[in-house]
């Protein structure tokens, strides 16, 4: 999408999909676009009997990234689409990891000119619904959910795959690009750096030093022969809903993949901040055996990605809060520079 705004779907637009998913006995009374969802449209469906559900719409008009053709053989490529969603939903259900239950899928575009699905509306704490809000409004209750999230991560990361790649590809027998996780991350970091230096003068002045640091940290990583973990890939508190009984439920699951657990943990550390320690060493499951050299490389790569990605998104010109995105990019660049300047590089 290259326009400045997205047109929100209306009650009339979503009524046929709702009727197919939930039956003719209830009518759609109202529609609200939910926050987030930069790769798909997310809408709360309010029914005339007071119940609700959530619609996902994977349309080019809903995707703010304007990613163009997507090759799912790239493990870290833009993750969007009903095919990925259903595969990841089924994988999580099979291992007992909570996610909103799929009620209806429309891959044939019968009710909208796009892939669409309807899922249960997982709502938790009054006034909230996701862990990020709950931690702000009720830290004590949020801490209990965080403890349960640590257990959920033990289940998630204890599940392994036959080879690296997106669940939606690998579980169907597909083979991804890339010989190892560390090689994929290194190549991505160097690509992000090359992209960043043309957008950010401060990064351009440090290009050679940063490229050398990426290669140095990559050289410190020893090959790994063990199984790869099932990871979410972008697991922040805004991607964890809280059910009415206080259980965490993962959303934005299309990027689920078999990969190094260290890639998940550098993102968890960034997004949960001081609360991360409880996820790194959960009370009820064994602490993960994380490779410090991989963590060093992956942390730098993550910050390069977060310094570059928002600037790419702003180049498209569709994101509704450009100040927020620039803030992420600037903070991430500061983190990159601090890793360059820190002797410990930890």
Explain what the structure shows.
There is one protein chain. This protein has 346 residues and is an alpha+beta fold. It has a domain of 211 residues: Aminoglycoside 3'-phosphotransferase, Chain: A, domain 2 (Alpha-Beta Complex). The protein is built from twelve helices and eleven strands. A five-stranded antiparallel sheet has the order 1-2-3-5-4. A hairpin with a 7-residue loop joins strand 1 and strand 2. The longest helix is centred in the last third of the chain and has 25 residues. The chain starts with 10 loop residues before the first helix and ends in a 5-residue tail after the last helix.
Task: Please tell me the CATH architecture of the domain at 131-341 by its name.
Answer: Alpha-Beta Complex
* Main sheet makeup: 5 strands, antiparallel
Instruction: State the shape.
Output: globular
Widest sheet, order of strands: 1-2-3-5-4
Described by its quaternary structure, the protein is: single chain
List keywords for this structure.
single chain, 346 residues, alpha+beta, Aminoglycoside 3'-phosphotransferase, Chain: A, domain 2
Spell out the blueprint of helices and strands:
Blueprint lengths: L10 H12 L5 E6 L7 E7 L4 E7 L23 H14 L6 E5 L8 E6 L10 H7 L1 H20 L1 E2 L3 E2 H4 L10 H17 L3 H5 L1 H13 L8 E4 L8 E3 L5 E3 L6 E3 L1 H12 L4 H4 L11 H25 L5 H20 L5
Antiparallel strand pairs: 1-2, 2-3, 3-5, 4-5, 6-8, 7-11, 8-11, 9-10
In a few lines, what is going on in this structure?
The chain is of the alpha+beta class.
């Amino acid at each position: 999408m290259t326009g400045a705004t997205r047109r929100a779907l209306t009650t009339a637009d979503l009524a046929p999909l709702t009727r197919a998913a939930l039956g003719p006995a209830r009518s759609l009374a109202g529609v609200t676009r939910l926050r987030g969802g930069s790769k798909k449209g997310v809408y709360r469906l309010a029914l005339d009997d007071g119940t609700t559900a959530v619609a996902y719409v994977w349309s080019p008009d809903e995707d703010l990234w304007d990613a163009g053709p997507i090759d799912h053989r790239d493990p870290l490529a833009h993750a969007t689409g009903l095919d990925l969603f259903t595969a990841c939903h089924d994988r999580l259900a099979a291992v007992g990891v909570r996610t909103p239950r799929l009620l209806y899928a429309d891959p044939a575009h019968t009710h909208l000119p796009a892939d669409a699905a309807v899922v249960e509306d997982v709502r938790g704490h009054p006034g909230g619904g996701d862990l990020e809000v709950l931690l702000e409004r009720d830290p004590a209750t949020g801490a209990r959910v965080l403890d349960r999230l640590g257990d959920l991560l033990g289940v998630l990361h204890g599940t392994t795959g036959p080879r690296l790649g997106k669940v939606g590809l690998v579980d169907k027998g597909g083979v991804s690009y890339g010989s190892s996780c560390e090689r994929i991350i290194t190549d991505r970091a160097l690509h992000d750096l090359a992209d960043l230096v043309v957008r950010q003068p401060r990064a351009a002045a440090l290009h050679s030093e940063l490229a050398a640091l990426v290669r140095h940290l990559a050289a410190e990583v020893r090959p790994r022969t063990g199984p790869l973990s099932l990871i979410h890939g972008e697991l922040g508190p805004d991607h964890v809903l809280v059910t009415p009984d206080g259980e965490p439920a993962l959303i934005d699951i299309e990027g689920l993949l078999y990969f190094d657990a260290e890639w998940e943990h550098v993102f968890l550390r960034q997004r949960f901040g001081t609360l991360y320690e409880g996820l790194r060493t959960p009370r009820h499951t064994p602490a993960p055996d994380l490779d410090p050299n991989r963590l060093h490389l992956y942390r730098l790569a993550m910050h390069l990605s977060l310094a570059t990605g928002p600037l790419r998104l702003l180049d498209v010109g569709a994101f509704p809060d450009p100040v927020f995105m620039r803030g992420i990019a600037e903070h991430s660049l500061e983190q990159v520079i601090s890793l360059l300047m820190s002797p410990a590089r930890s």
